[in-house]
Structures are given as structure tokens and as C-alpha cells.
Amino acid sequence: MTGELSPAASPADGRPELRASHADRDRVVELLRIAAGDGRLTAEELDERLEAALTARTQRELTVLTADLPAAPGSGLDLAAPPKEVVRIVRHGGNARSLGRWAVPKRMEIKVKGGNVRLDFTEAVITSPVLQVDADVRGGSFLIITRPGVVVDADDVEMFGGSVKIHSPVGPQPPTILHVEISGQVRGGNIRARPPRPPRRTFWQWLVRRPRPNG
After folding, report:
1. Backbone angles phi, psi at 153, to 5 degrees
2. Which residue, among 71, 81, 73, 136, has the nearest Cα to 103 in the 3D structure?
3. DSSP assignment of 19-73, as one string?
4. Residues contacting 209, CB < 8 A, separation 6+
5. Quick one: pLDDT band at residue 214, thresholds 50, 70, 90?
6. What does the alpha-carbon distance between residue 202 and residue 99 come to, in Å, rounded to a whole number?
7. Has this prediction a pTM greater than 0.70?
8. Digit-coded pLDDT (tens) for 186-209
9. Cα separation, 129 vs 14, whole angstroms
10. Number of domains in the chain
11. Of 75, 76, 28, which Cα lies nearest the Cα of 53?
12. CB of 162 closer than 8 Å to CB of 190
């Protein structure tokens, strides 16, 4: 019949497939980017799966793309809640740290005056490809701990004393999963971005003078 709607291919139980929404596709795309940044997918595999995710019509097609990844739906990582648009951190002395599996917002405003702010992306849940950071550092420090796939750009930071140092990794790099764009100013303070340091040797390793374990 002309104009009749046909449901998506039905699974074995005969029920029609649930259609995928734009939000469903976006969540899977971010999961794939995280997996690529962790080294679980090659660049070719990432491109192939991203194309399949963006053209998927049903939720089952999306589930297949992340079934072999630890961050697949149902594994305990909840990305259903939208990330915050803006997170503000203000420190006049003292320390502020974002560690572990914290949700990365779309924008951050960092104001430091004689204090310390540390953002550790080692296990962070990345839900957007770009993080914009407006930094105002005066007599304190702002430290970013990166991981493979996290790129930091501080070219738009104005310096009036102080320093800005961004560690640039050498050699082939995995696909970029997060681009941190820092703007603002530094007055007598510093901004640093570096990968995590290797773990310290235990007392027994020091005693027998074993080499430092790889990070």
C-alpha cells in the first residue's frame, strides 16, 4: 500500500527494532572516541565505526559497535545525563582537584589567586570533543594532567610575568578525543600541561635498585 510505514527489521522475538535518536548516536560516538584515546581502537577502526554510528538507524546497530569495549552501554559508565555547560573553580589560596572519573563539561572558568588547581584527565569521562577554559591565574598554579588523545592549546593566554608550559608528546599519537583550548591571562603564576608521571619505586625496588616501572 502506498504510504504504508514498514518497521525496522525485527529481532528473533518478533518485536520491531527501537529506532536510534540523535542523542543515542552522539553517546556512541563519544564512547568510540574514548576507546580510541585509550588505545583500544586503531585510527582505521575508529573511522569505520564512527561512520557506522552516524548512519545507524536502530539501537541494536549502535550496541554492536561498542559491544567489545569496556565503556559499552550497561558496563557501569553512565553517559545518559548531559554534561554541565559551565563549571567554575575559584581559589584564593588552597587547592582544588578534579580526579578519577569526573565528567568533563563543555566550558570551565578557572580563577586562581595564590592557590592551586589541578585537572586530571587520566580517567575523566569525556563527553564533548572540545573543552574551552577561561583561565585567570595570579600568583598560583593551574596544572593539567593529560592522557593519549587529549591535546592542550594555550596560544591565546596572555602573560604578564609567570609562565605557560605545554608538554608536546613526540612520535605517532592516537586520534584526538579532546581538544582543551585555554584562553585568559597569567600574572605571576603558571599554567602547566603534562602527561602523568610514572609511579614511584617502592622501598623494595629502591633497595635492590630496580629500574623505575613504566607508566
Report:
1. -125, 115
2. 81
3. BPPHHHHHHHHHHHHHHHHTTSS-HHHHHHHHHHHHT--BHHHHHHHHTTSTTST
4. none
5. low
6. 23
7. no
8. 998 999 999 988 766 565 555 666
9. 38
10. 1
11. 28
12. yes
In a domain, 45, yes or no: no
In a domain, 66, yes or no: no
Domain extent at residue 190 = 86-194
Using only C-alpha atoms, the chain has a radius of gyration, in whole angstroms, of 22
Question: pLDDT at residue 133 above 80?
Answer: yes
Listed residue (108, 94, 187) closest to 144, CA to CA: 108
pLDDT in tens, 15-67: 567 888 888 888 888 888 888 877 788 888 888 999 999 999 988 888 889 88
Residue 56 forms part of a structural domain:
no
- Reading phi first (left if > 0) and then psi (alpha if -120 to 50, else beta), residue 12 is in alpha
In a domain, 72, yes or no: no
Q: In the numeric block, which cell numbers belong to residue 185?
A: 591571562
pLDDT at site 21: 84
